Amino acid sequence: MNMFLWLSLIPVLFYCIFRHKRRRLYKYASSVIKHKEDLPIIGVTWAFLGFTGDIFVKLQQFSTFTSQNGGLTNCWLGPHLYYTGQD
């Protein structure tokens, strides 16, 4: 029982360290409009699955959303933050 407790605390500890190291990234990401189709863990990764034509249509929709919201939005591709901008 004691070994199970220690083994279950290790992933929690690593997750807390991971979040703490990236706290400034989360702060800056929250100051910019988030894309409307962002999912909690995978972000917009799901949008880039499929055929090339479907991916191109999604990119056009992201571009339209960006231009409608001041020219700067952000989106997450898994744990990576990307800013999308237009001039």
TrEMBL record:
The source's superkingdom equals Eukaryota
From the Swiss-Prot or TrEMBL record, give the protein name: Uncharacterized protein
